[in-house]
Amino acid sequence: MGIAPVRWALPPLASAAQHKHVNAAHYATGVISGTAALGRRIPRKDARMRAKCSLLALLVGLLGSGALAQGPTHFLAGAELASALRGGGLVLYVRHPATESHQADAEEIDFSNCGTQRNLSDAGRRTARDIGAALRDMGVTVGRIVTSEYCRAREAALLMGLSGAEADGALNDGGRMLAKGPASPQAEALRTMLRTAPEPGRVTLIVAHRPNIADAAGQAFADITEAEIIAFQPIAAAPGFQAIGRIRPTDWPALLQAGRG
Known about the structure:
This protein is of the alpha/beta class. It has one domain: 3-Layer(aba) Sandwich (Rossmann fold). 42% of the residues lie in helices and 13% in strands. It is built from eight helices and seven strands, in the order βαααβαβαβαβαββα. It has helices at residues 16-38, 44-65, 78-87, 122-138, 151-159, 185-195, 210-217, 252-260, and strands at residues 6-7, 91-95, 142-147, 166-167, 203-208, 229-234, 241-247. α6 (185-195) crosses α7 (210-217). The protein is globular and about 50 Å long. It starts with 5 loop residues before the first strand and ends with a helix.
């Protein structure tokens, strides 16, 4: 079950000194908790039982979610992909662009305070602007925009030139903050978004993180790179969507050229 989406005004970014303080606290907390964990011994029988339960949960999740049905397909490219994007009816999943490598998310994130989070780097901000310009150049009409609550996802949408984005907590990083796996409520919430057809002639654009799409659509998409777009088409057959194309940042010049041909 997803968290009700809200509209955000991006809070001001923190200074480098604030990030240094947050990152140091995060590092110290991680070291202390990790060291303490090493001192706890799990009985061998309990460990075996936990491993069996984890495997069973994973298999049930994969079978129940329909994620296995979303295997690799024939991806469109060149003029075909450009035409499909212009035609609308797609859901575009974007992993946020590059972030500052020296920053880290605090142990307790305040989504209204970017100083508690890892934020976009200057290169990531340029990439976000370039993607927005490329979408406009290609004639893609974006309807609904949904992001996670992280500043890096919300800022990416703003820099793409897309206003009116909704921030949905169901898109927060499933690898760290939320329940993980294809059977999690967050994965199902994202699958619902991928199944929902946008208004005619428009695309829905989602800006979020790598773990979310891997859980929702399968491990075939676990290699999504920063600022890469995976284009999904809602369909009637299970699991309700199929990937029709992948666009990495370096693919845009050739794709734009093919779309003009």
